Amino acid sequence: MTEIDHKKILTERISARLGRRAVLKGMGAGIVAATAAGGFPAIARAQQSGHLKIASIKVIDTLDPHFTGFLSSIQVINNIHNGLLKIVYDGENLTFEPDLAETWDLEDDKTHVFKLRDGVKFHDGTTCDAEAVKFSLLRVKEGEPTSPHAWKLALLDEIEIVDPLTVKLHFSQPYAFLPVALNGSTGRAGTIVSPAAVEKYGTDYGRNPVGTGPFKFVSWRENDAIELEANTEYFEPDMPKLERVTFLLMNEASTAIAALFSGQIDGMNDCPMQLVNQVDANPNTTLYGEIEGNYTFLGMNCKKGPFTDINLRRAVAWAIDRETMVKQAYFGRAQQAYTPISPPMTDFFDPDIATSGRGQWFDLDKAREFRALAENQDEIEVTYMMAERGPVGTRTAQTIAPMLAQIGIKVNLELVEPATWLKRRNEGDFDLYDFEWVADLDPDEAIYPEFKSDGAWNFCGWVNTEFDDLCAQAQVILDPAERRKLYYQAEDLLMDEAPIGVMAHMPIYKVFSNKVEGFQYIPADLMNLHTVSKV
Amino acid sequence: MLIQALKKLGQTLVVLMIVSIATFGLLKLAPGDPVQIMLGAEYSQETYESMTRELGLDQPFLVQYADWAMNFVQGDWGTSYIARTDIFTYGFKEALPVTLTLAFFSLSFAILIGVPLGVLSAVKKDTIFDAGSAVFALTGTAFPSFLLGILLIWFFGVKLQLFPVMGYVSPWEDLRLGIYHMILPGLTLSTYFIAMITRLTRATLIEVMDEPYIAAARARGEPGWRVIWVHGVRNIAMPLVTILGLQLGTLIQGTVLTETVFNLPGIGQMLTSAVLGREYQVVQAGVMMTAFLFIGVNLLVDLSYPILDPRLRDRK
Hints:
The complex is a heterodimer.
Chain A: H1 2-14, H2 20-37, E1 51-56, H3 71-80, E2 82-83, E3 85-89, E4 94-98, E5 101-108, E6 111-116, H4 130-142, E7 156-163, E8 166-171, H5 178-183, E9 191-192, H6 195-201, E10 215-221, E11 225-230, E12 244-249, H7 253-261, E13 267-268, H8 273-281, E14 285-291, E15 295-300, H9 310-319, H10 322-328, E16 335-336, H11 353-356, H12 364-373, E17 380-387, H13 390-405, E18 409-416, H14 418-426, E19 432-437, H15 443-451, H16 465-475, H17 480-497, E20 500-505, E21 507-513, E22 516-517, E23 533-534
Parallel strand pairs in A: 1-12, 1-13, 17-18, 17-19
Antiparallel strand pairs in A: 2-9, 3-4, 5-6, 6-8, 7-8, 10-11, 11-12, 13-21, 14-21, 15-19, 15-20, 16-20, 22-23
Helix pairs in contact in A: 9-12, 15-16, 16-17
Chain B: H1 2-29, H2 34-39, H3 45-54, H4 61-73, H5 87-123, H6 128-142, H7 145-159, H8 175-209, H9 212-219, H10 224-232, H11 237-261, H12 267-276, H13 280-308
């Protein structure tokens, strides 16, 4: 009985969402892998050619997958390393498929079995086997210094090495979040690093990464460029196609666009919304981008100041005209958000959310009703802490201020530089601030750590134990339908008590010159160059 | 002479110490926490504390400063928290040459364009040419360099595709490509200086041309070009060099924006990212290098006076 359930769930998680293609694809991959495992050297190796230059606009802190929280770092890391699982996108659904693992099975609801591919080598020539997997997972879970992603493997009780190519992960509870924890874009707890290299470089591993990926790390020049070269021994057939890749580290997006248009570079990892129209109009470039797993919001301080008053918070949440926001602040590119769960979370997002009656939206009458219930009926003056985050950030604050003036709240905009902003946000020194949580693939990472009472990212300081319980329950259930029900209840509480006014789901754009072919877009802000070639 | 030199050296050391304490203190006073910045959104309290200890940020201010200063003097500039690289390599060997190249090209443009333009304006005083150069100079001084940079990029880089719009190639490795990459940033940064030198050359030359020795040269029947370039321009060299030395600060300040717009990995970019990331030691290294540069150049300016003006030479 139990076994049948697990199989059903596993099928759902791995392949069902892919539809009929999945079976073929899954089998195909199995056969290819088996051939590779059999040790036939006749596997088609790609002929590498071409040098791709990509502008990386945002900060890259380290290339150590276990210690970064930056998506721009992950974009590079993903080309050097592989994980146990990988994220696959077929144009409609996001799924998790085995990567370094050949198969991924659930023995029971707490035990995951990964069978590894045979013959996979790290760039330093050492073998990627069960020991390396155990080493990497333990490095995240209990390594010193502590990985910021350690919490993702907190429920992992034991890592059992069955044979050199089989790893069994025993969890203390069913853990639906596992695939995301292993792959989640903001940190790769399931990325496998070379134990020999970690031994050799210690904390400098992030500057000398050694993985199994399609590209090898060559050099990193500060404020200048990160160079990669093809790994000719890569285990997936016909990959990579490029000979060299350069990530140019740039601060100024408009310079990157100019370099792209003049042919000096081939692509950009992030095209800010204010420049998208310009790129769209250029016939020599192609834009990739969809609404990704994110939400932007106006945060209100529930711990001190005027917004401790729940009715004032509700008034603000209903006074934000999201349609105007999308037009003004997001250059018409974003999508109005009703709740935090975003479109790419296909198991959880309700396509009819607009008419479902759930969430928050613009209703000035309702906002005024709540305002009338607020304790303070005089004009209230509040401080809105703005960060220097380009035109989108500035416009967001400037658009919101007059909306709140309509319900008797006078907003003082205060622009602070990034380090100060971070400190003040983390210490709860604000009345209002806006922010975005990005690259979320599961509701568990989209709302739980952000709004858990005393949660590390709960900067608004909202407390609701019922919400905590609902999220905690959903975490240990594997069935998506049941999880969805719980998350909807949790979201309803969140939206009603309004520590935030949710605003929009944003598209994230990447641009390539038309000379670049074969880029597979994944709506998790990834820049996988495995299949990319340059004419 | 020796006493003077020692005095100068002592002054320099005092200045450097004041500069280093001031930067260190100001950075510490500014709100913001390097550990929070490094760890991003996801971290636990233990991670935070272990990182703080690892970086020595739990120590009192004076201990941190003394540690830094002792190591710095001995040539150990520390390790960048974020880059995890040796700051001496990053700052001195990698970033400094880029900024020096940029400064060299800008100064060359400023002198090669500014001086002839100024001389022409002085000679053709009160003509349409003089008025034109005055307008150019005023515009050049008033025009924000980042805007000019972006305009140059779009016109010469994207429209005409004449020059690369970004990046640095070391002229030592590839002279042609190196120069090629420096033309747009060099022009951007030097516009202000071209304008300034043009005006300065014009004003001082007009004064010099009224001096009796110019009249004497003319009376001797020397050709017009010789009167201007040999007797005239030589005598404006001193104010020119003095002003250029003092304006070096402005030039270095300008490299910050120019390096950002043209994506050059120099001291300007290093300082910007270090300030934003609250990388105290990197900022210190950057500031110390620029302070050294500034003091060094002004020392050279002082030393050049006897060469430029024989009357100042020691005749003993």
